[in-house]
Design a protein that fits this description.
It is a single chain. By secondary structure, the chain is an alpha/beta fold. The strands form eleven sheets. A six-stranded parallel β-sheet has the order 5-10-9-6-8-7, with helices on both faces. A five-stranded mixed β-sheet has the order 17-16-20-19-18. Helix content is 45%, strand content 15%. The chain has six domains: 32-124 and 297-384, no CATH class; 130-271, P-loop containing nucleotide triphosphate hydrolases (Rossmann fold), CATH 3.40.50.300; 393-443, Ribosomal Protein L25, Chain P (Beta Barrel); 519-745, no CATH class; 766-946, Arc Repressor Mutant, subunit A (Orthogonal Bundle), CATH 1.10.10; 953-1018, no CATH class. The longest helix has 19 residues, at 67-85. Helix 7 crosses helix 8, helix 17 (463-477) packs antiparallel against helix 18 and helix 22 (613-625) packs across helix 25 (676-689).
Length: 1019
């Protein structure tokens, strides 16, 4: 039989194997889009690539929706052109995917624009799958506690013992290291391995082969094992935390049961209550055959620039033919000649910076319309090409044999120092020294270690999964009048067990009781509540996914900054937007829906993105992808800090207004230059990091009445607000650090309410009455009454009946007067005569006191300003009231009071809502001084806390005896039992001798001192 040579060429392939591919080209080459780009650009490999006949793009969905797909499409057209020039036939192109919809979109990416529609073999996406949601014993909350994590580890370890091989997927590299360490303690370090992109190729390959051979029983991985790497037969897949994507979940679960007629088996482990509902929605989507929709990334200009340089480096090009070649790639089918010419202009002319002209990669013959690569352009394309953003990682190098074992995030590496012990690949390493771009380590022999972190953006939930989640919420809400029917529906539709379905139902029921509605795609709820610092937190409950909500939060933050001239903290998650309002931010809650309009959204969001960290990051990525900045120079990788400095210099040259000091600007919008890289960076911000089109659709539906609006002032955060208040830093929309977040000033209820009441979100009438009573002054002298008159401006006679004697004393001293306005009578301090005269110019003063010169206030000749002062003072005295009641008290027109209230509201001094039972019943707008309302909220919460009955001391002691394993029958056994006892007592201080004399023997049956020594020696 003839020999069929195969080879693999990826970024991990050693140099000698790459040279072997060039010397003896294989019949079948397995490669990546990035390596194909290099092969098409290198002169030596182009000769044998011209003989290619078939291209198979496996897992095409993994690249189709981002810039890698556009990059690959252009590479395929270059390969087609190379084969055609060499006299070959048209390439046969084959695309494969098990999780793609619509399949026609992937087909269009595969074949480009000038080929006939390909044959589509659609065998369907529905496949029998054993998919279930695992529930731990403890009730889930807004944050997964250490005890709950321990339960998850125990359950995963138990499942792994029941199966020959298990894959565990988590969402971050840090979590891979953490989960691997804990599972290794339960299953044995020799049976568990880690697998993620920051481990070296050799360590990843070793984990794959050991799992395939059966030496390993479990591997913990991120997306690095999601696609078609051969790891042999996998019996079970566990997903810890929601993957936020239907396709990702199906792909990961599909790694198990990969044999013919086998059934994939997956278990989802939600970490929080929100994730429980999301995992239920995911399971429901899988059952119904739903999957995320694919959309091509339209004509990214940075990728276009890179490919043009690579094409011209291979041979001189005619501009028109090059334009036609680019448009044959599906993502560039609508590429305009204007955009193409602008990119070519930048590549030919470069960008003038203080270090010379950057990005000049081409010679342009404008007369003959020809393009030729400048010297060094081919090397720049080969060493700095690709569509994957550059990461700022430090290589971890093992001494003394100089083996690279992985990489660390730049921030973590810089914060570390010699002697620190880190965990990487389930192995402890001691840092010897830190160099530029390298961390040199030695084996730490299993010493206790620190788990590294890697910084990055959190993935947003896909729109399709967001739709499914909203449908699950709505399905439960529709059946809450029959609680058992809601549980049964969840069990039937999502596959939750009874305990999980009951918790999900109770969670949604508690939210509906507090908010008055369940947030879905047809209902948006805005909630506002006080924090402990006297500020307010506003949460927009909108389950539209992180990209839409990030755009909503950024736009609202910018709008409020324009309105109040104060920056505020904000965060956005998949289920909502959080805005931390200071004392100066006061507005009717309903106004939130009118602050943004779909027609003015683009400019507002552009201005917000320009000042956000995401713009600088994406500018650096795009400058690198376009080869304006190089990843490698002089045979060495450009250090991250140097890359950032050069990106900043480039931005200053192209877009000085963005990098300028805003203190020296005129305060107007930043003018955006018509530069292809700037436009591409803004487009990335608006459509990749955010979803401006999705937000525009939401705002349009809100304005058209297609989405129901609900607003609620609550005394404490609803359960749906808990998770966003505890959001991770990647959810923040501003640069305030964790320790300075105003959201930390919110006290949260632990667990769900024991019983759900209809009035759970309302203020306590007793608390309102108590605070109003406290606000009313308890006067004991004429001087104290004089202070009150100075504060309120005018005191109606009916309010002053108890203090007639004090009033006579003040009148006799010339310090106060009686004001008569028709039938109405009030009392005024002499110092407030001009204030009262400005409001009631026809009033009589009895006696006609003279305002002391030192207290004269010329501003009170302004009636509107004087009325604002009077209204502000009275609000601090009367508690929740209506505009009509204030107008009657002050004997002025209701419209004038409305204007004054609006002015006080703009200053942040008053809040409007429906606070009292009477106001709620009459649906009347009430107004309350901000400080009084904060006190009413605190009183309400105190009343709720008093309803919680504490256990007796005897019950507590019985619990502690059992909890600490002192009670007979609860003692632990052996060395493992000793470790569990120490974990329970960690942080407790007592004399060293007492531990082994009194504490440990009482809790561990048959305690032996040698066990403690063994635990200490093992680390």
């Amino acid at each position: 039989a003839p020999e069929i040579r195969t080879a693999v060429r990826t970024g991990d392939t050693p140099a000698h194997e790459r040279r072997q591919v060039g010397r003896r080209p294989p019949h079948v080459l397995v490669t990546t889009p990035e390596s194909l780009f290099i092969l098409l650009t290198a002169e030596s490999s182009r000769r044998w690539l011209s003989q290619v006949r078939t291209v198979i793009v496996d897992e095409i969905h993994a690249v189709a929706g981002d810039k890698r797909g556009a990059h690959l499409a252009l590479s395929l057209e270059r390969l087609e052109e190379l084969v055609r020039t060499g006299g070959g036939a048209r390439l046969q192109r084959i695309g494969l995917s098990a999780t793609v919809r619509p399949i026609e979109t992937a087909a269009r990416l595969l074949v480009g624009g000038d080929r006939p529609r390909p044959e589509i073999v659609n065998v369907g996406q529905r496949r029998d799958m054993d998919l279930a949601v695992e529930m731990i014993g403890d009730e889930l909350g807004a944050v997964c506690t250490n005890e709950q994590w321990e339960e998850i580890y125990d359950r995963v370890a138990a499942l792994a013992r029941e199966h020959r091989s298990t894959l565990v997927f988590v969402n971050t590299r840090r979590l891979v290291e953490r989960v691997t360490r804990h599972l290794a303690e339960r299953l044995g370090a020799e049976r568990v391995a880690a697998h993620h992109s920051s481990l070296s190729r050799q360590r990843r390959f070793d984990a794959e082969q050991r799992l395939k051979s059966g030496e390993l029983s479990l591997v913990v991985a991120t997306a690095s094992l999601e696609l078609g790497i051969d790891v042999g037969t996998v019996d079970l897949t566990c997903l810890i935390g929601s993957p936020r994507s239907i396709a990702t979940a199906l792909q990961r679960v599909g790694r198990s049961g990969h044999a013919l007629l086998a059934t994939p088996k997956g278990r989802l482990f939600p970490l929080t209550r929100d994730q429980l509902v999301e995992c239920a929605a995911l399971a429901r989507a899988a059952r119904r055959g739903e999957i995320d929709r694919l959309a091509l990334r339209a004509a990214p200009l940075d990728v276009l620039a890179q490919q043009i340089v690579a094409i011209c480096a291979s041979e001189e090009q005619d501009e028109d033919r090059l334009f036609a070649l680019c448009r044959r790639a599906a993502p560039y089918a609508d590429l305009t000649r204007h955009d193409f010419d602008q990119v070519v202009d930048v590549l030919a002319d470069g960008i003038a910076t203080r270090r010379g002209r950057a990005a000049a990669r081409l010679h342009r013959d404008a007369v003959g319309r020809r393009l030729k690569a400048r010297r060094g352009s081919r090397l720049a394309a080969i060493t700095s090409g690709g569509a994957i953003p550059d990461n700022a990682n430090y290589d971890v190098v093992l001494e003394p044999d100089e083996t690279t074992i992985g990489s660390l995030d730049e921030d973590f590496a810089i914060e570390s120092m010699a002697g620190d012990v880190i965990l990487l690949g389930n192995t402890s390493w001691r840092i010897r020294r830190i160099e530029s771009g390298k961390v040199r380590v030695e084996d730490a022999g299993g010493a206790p270690s620190t788990i590294p972190f890697w910084l990055g953006e959190g993935p947003a939930r896909t729109p399709e999964l967001s739709t499914e989640l909203a449908a699950v919420r709505q399905g439960v809400a529709d059946r809450l009048h029959e609680p058992e029917a809601a549980v049964a529906w969840l069990e039937q539709e999502t596959g939750l067990d009874r305990r999980g379905a009951t918790l999900a139902r109770d969670y949604i029921a508690a939210a509906q009781a507090a908010l008055g509605a369940v947030p879905t795609r047809e209902t948006v709820v805005v909630e506002r509540f006080f924090d402990e610092a006297g500020g307010m937190q506003m949460v927009i409950h909108a389950p539209f996914g992180g990209r839409v909500n990030r755009a909503w939060g950024m736009a609202l933050r910018k709008r409020l900054c324009h309105s109040f001239n104060f920056e505020l903290q904000a965060a956005a998650t998949d289920d909502g937007v959080l805005l931390s309002l200071g004392p100066q931010h006061s507005f009717p809650l309903e106004a939130v829906f009118e602050m943004l309009h779909p027609h003015g959204l683009d400019e507002l969001l552009i201005q917000a993105a320009l000042q956000a960290p995401m713009f600088a990051t994406r500018w650096r990525w795009n400058a690198t992808r376009s080869l304006a900045l190089l990843r490698w120079q002089g045979g060495r990788k450009v250090p991250p800090y140097l890359q950032r400095m050069r990106a900043e210099d480039l931005l200053v040259a192209v877009f000085p207004a963005q990098a300028a000091c805003q203190d020296n600007m005129d305060g107007g919008p930043i003018e955006v230059p018509d530069h292809p890289l700037v436009r591409e960076t803004l487009r990335d911000c608006l459509t990749e990091a955010m979803d401006i089109d999705g937000l525009r659709a939401v705002l349009t539906a809100l304005h058209d009445g297609q989405i129901r609006r609900v607003v609620r002032e609550t005394p404490e955060p609803s359960v749906f607000a808990h998770e966003i208040l505890n959001a991770n830093p990647y959810a923040y929309l501003d640069d305030a650090p964790l320790e300075e977040r105003r959201a930390r000033a919110v006290t949260l209820r632990r667990g769900l309410p024991a019983a759900v009441a209809d009035d759970v979100g309302r203020l306590d009438p007793a608390a309102i009455a108590a605070v109003v009573d406290e606000a009313w002054p308890d006067l004991r002298s004429a001087d104290e009454l004089h202070d009150l008159l100075l504060d309120v401006g005018l005191l109606p006679e009916r309010m002053a009946e108890a203090w007639t004697g004090y009033l006579d004393e003040l009148i006799a001293a010339g310090r106060a007067a009686r004001l008569r306005e028709g039938p109405r009578v009030g009392w005024v301090a002499a110092e407030r005569r001009s204030l009262a005269a400005a409001i009631w110019p026809g009033a009589r003063f009895e006696p006609d006191v003279t305002e002391p010169p030192a207290r004269r206030a010329p501003a009170w000749s302004d009636r509107e300003g004087a009325l604002v002062e009077m209204v502000r003072a009275h609000l601090g005295l009367v508690g929740p009231t209506t505009a009509g009641a204030l107008a009657a008290t002050l004997a002025v027109a209701p419209g004038e009071v409305d204007a004054a209230l609006a002015a006080v509201e703009a200053e942040g001094g008053v809040l409007r809502g429906r606070f009292t039972p009477e106001g709620i019943a009459a649906d009347a707008v009430e107004w309350c001084d901000r400080r009084l309302l904060a006190r009413i909220h605190r009183r309400t919460l105190e009343g709720l806390r008093r309803l919680i009955e504490p256990v007796s001391a005897a019950v507590l002691i019985r619990f502690l005896l059992a909890w600490q394993h002192v009670k007979p029958g609860t003692q632990q056994h052996g060395r493992d039992g000793l470790q569990r006892v120490i974990e329970r007592l960690q942080g407790f201080e007592i004399a060293a001798g007492a531990w082994e004399r009194d504490v440990l023997p009482a809790r561990v049956a048959g305690y032996q001192p040698g066990w403690l020594d063994e635990l200490c020696l093992s680390g």
